[in-house]
Amino acid sequence: MPKIAFYKYLMFFIVSYDLRERFHLHVVNTKGRDTLAAKIWLDPLEISEKGHLSKSELRIALKLIGKNRDEIKNKIRSFAKGEKSKPLSLKLNKMEGINRISPIIDKIDFPEKGSIRIYLKDGRKLITPLKFFPSIKRLNDKQRKQYHIADGQILFFDKCDEIFHIEQFLGKEQQYRYHFSTVAAEPKVKYGKK
Fold it and tell me: From 3, 30, 61, 126, which residue has the greatest number of CB atoms within 10 Å?
């Protein structure tokens, strides 16, 4: 079972009798007790068997193999010829973007009639039409300034019965589940202008 490559806790290997098949790797999470390996074809790059790897681990394995496919094939060819060598140490580029940053509300304002602007602590600004939030749209200018931010993610107004979560403004309302106990247990509240 020669090791072809590794990445953190993922080990990529081949089995000697597999050399008769088209290029592929077996991948296993070395930290887990359940070590049923995934099987990934190299050409075309696809999962044959997912083993006990999570979806996230499979995505990482596919990215690593795709990025290093030629080197991996050369390692397999070397092994088939009886040559011994150290396994490849694989690396991923750091992921760009904001997908791992939790949105935290800093403040809000109403820059123009018919929209709300939400300033997030990470520097983003969300501008959303109030047609999606009729209860906020019905508030007058004075009432709109009487807002509160709880736990950095919940927004509510003194003269409005609705409570809004940041996910609603991001368009992820169906993914969000409101946990009343979190808010009821003395939330950190930031008060708007009065």
Answer: 61
E strand segments, 65-140:
88-89, 105-109, 115-120, 125-129
Q: Could you tell me the CA-to-CA distances from 95 to 65, 91, 98, 125, 129 in Å, in that order?
A: 17, 12, 9, 22, 31
Give the CATH fold of the 105-191 domain: NE0471 N-terminal domain-like (3.30.2020)
The answer, as to whether pTM is greater than 0.85, is no
Q: Is the pLDDT of residue 107 over 90?
A: yes
List the structure tokens of 191.
Answer: 């008060």
Q: Note whether 68 and 88 are within 8 A (CB).
A: yes
Spans of all domains in the chain: 3-89, 105-191
Helix runs in 9-120, H state only:
55-67, 69-80
